Task: structure prediction
Amino acid sequence: MLQIPLWNRLMIVLVVLAGVSFAMPNLFYDRVERHNDAVAAIEETGATTDALAADRALWPDWLPSTLVNLGLDLRGGAHLLAEVQVADVYEARMDGLWPEVRDALRDVRDQVGTIRRQDAPAGELHVRISQPEGLAAGVAAVRTLAQPVVSLTGVGSPTLEVSGTGDLIVVTLSEAERQATDDRTMQQSVEIVRRRVDEAGTREPTIQRQGQDRILIQVPGIGSAQELKDLIGTTARLTFHPVVGRTQDPEADVEARQLLLPSMDEDGVFYILEQTPVVTGDDLVDSQPAFDQQTGQPSVTFRFNPAGARDFGDYTAANVGAPFAIVLDNEVISAPVIRQAITGGSGQITGNFTVETSTELAVLLRAGALPAEMVFLEERTIGPELGADSIEAGEMAALVAFAAVLVFMVLSYGLFGVFACIALVLNVGLIFGILSVIGATLTLPGIAGIVLTIGMAVDANVLVFERIREELKTAKGPARAIELGYSRALSAIVDANLTTFIIAVILFTLGSGPVRGFSVTLGIGIITSVFTAIYVTRLLIVTWFDRRRPKTIEV
Amino acid sequence: MRLRLVPDQTSIDFFKYARLTFGASVVAMVLSLGVWLSMGLNFGIDFLGGTTIRTESAEAVDVGVYRDALAPLALGDVSITEVFDPTFGPDQNVAMIRIQAQDGAEAVTPETIAAVEAALVAVVPDITFPSVESVGPKVSGELIQTAIIAVLASLGAILVYIWLRFEWQFSVGAVVALVHDVILTIGIFSLLQIRFDLATIAALLTIIGYSINDTVVIFDRLRENLIKYKTRELRDVMNLSVNETLSRTVMTSGTTLLALLALLVLGGDVIRGFVFAIFWGVIVGTYSSVYVAKNVVLFIGVKRDWSKPDAKAGTQFSNIDA
Result:
């Protein structure tokens, strides 16, 4: 009657063993983490130092070494939610488009007359023509500039929308192109943020795109959100411009297509620059902190790719004796005079640097410029001590909860209670095993989720045991009662747990951060608790029953 | 000797005081709504925007000194509360400072945080800031919206699930019980002015999950008994079902509450509000599955004939014993 096929037994034992062995490294968190770090370092550098080898030896290579990630609230670190100002890019696109539009309209000059760019709202390009009757021809000419959008959804629709009223031609990006642009901007931003954070070398940062225009950045172990913002918040757009003049007047008049930018080091000094840069940071391939050989001051070296090197070489060769400005995020770092043509494609930036700022700038330049500005909507800093306290409190609470439930179960159900408790231990092991394998993050509410699961995991067992008790009353004999108990309690167990699982799924989809961590442990806990209650305790009870063959059982 | 919280055989009439228990639930719900409307909720920065700073120092916290230090900064509404917890060491004095979202700032203002920290360090030199959290008003608005959607979506999902698995009367009963639990929890949060933030929403959803779990177990037994006793009075069948599952209800609530109690006392102050909500919800949820969900089902009545149409009917040939 109480038969469980052999392969079934083997499967159950295998699953439990796998779960527990993947959970085990978490008991030796610190050792395994040092081992993992050492292995990663050895792999990356290829060199094995004594210290690394010693760390590596802390944990045998052949044992599973995956760990549960600790969330920010447990490890300490910084959390930022940034909104990328995707619309900034439209403006840059329109600026880039203007020369093309001008050329296109010049080709039909006999119909539209003279043209003039007008001030326009951000993301729009307004051109006034002197002969309104040529509007249709003008609009048609500008339309030829539009290309089909390259994206998954908007294939075929043009990139530009061109309309005209009276003597005004209005050019904007089409809706499809805006979306495609937003997508590209976000991908670039995420990539660059990731590169910058990686360059700083912290452990397991989370960098995720959220929704339309947001990026979630979580970096464990970093001192404060401000530090993180310094690293990722600056655009770090490096450009090289021809210098037109120098002035002390912040209101100085500049001609069209010229810029007035402040100097970074000299107070009250402004430079008038050509708006179109000679070369930009996009052409950089490398940048390193260094020291100026003449003065010994910290400086930053850079190297261009071949295209950048050629442009830079051509320009410097043609303008020996003239100053050019090195501009970072709309501030002039320095404006040296070109002494000779720089053809090698590399150079060095000197300015008022410290060793820290030169290192930081080199990191930023290597990682590349952000395509658009970021605004921070949410920031959280959690100190490592608070996290350690929380882990300690959580562990303590979990142990006490565990002990209390254990005693309660054994008092109520005797031997069957012991079986349920063994299942409970395995259940917690399985939860940690799964969390480790899927690389989930454990947060403080996540620990609460596990503690809650400890309380609720017993439920499935309680349902079965109570049912066995009832079946025993109708005097069917112990084996039959156990069998009926399991089969009749099943529908209640499934319904009860499925509804809770639905909630866990909703929490996961709609929640963020810690709430999500809670939903993950709750959801996994439901699956493992049903598994341990239905299969593991049953295997234990059946094995025990087969050995002893008791005439009567007391539950 | 086994521990028996509930005797083996019970035949409690759960409807004997139906007017009283159901009435009490209605009154409690009305009171909760009243408290909620009159006192409001103590929303955390997740929903209001603003900044909370947790401070820690060896020196005892003097709220007055902190307040005076921050007054010159003109930050608007600043609330300073000292935090007590049994897990703190003797020289661990913790306070929470909450600053409202600054006018006109879409995003977080790091300058404000820096100014606050500097002002506090000036009066309490050894002060540290174990956590600093800021949420801009833009995000907090969306968080409220998401929270409401999450609660409604859960209720909706359960309504549909129970309807599919049982009958529509059951799903109405279950959802009424859940709404009862949610409102009572919001009521106690309002009454005690416990901070209401994202974690509280997660707690609310957990309560929904727990309470439905409890309700479903009773419904499941009810369905079984309705098939078994086709002619008995609905009220009696319900009483029988609750009595039969009573031992399980008490055991499960007992173990869950035990685990939660450990967390409530020892889990630290950071998640205390969260754990308290679930603790309260388990009590209310257990009560509502026994006294609310069922009453609603009894009130609207339910289909009595649960037997499936006989598959063999009309095919007499298959009855031949070969």
About this structure: The longest strand of chain B covers residues 50-57.
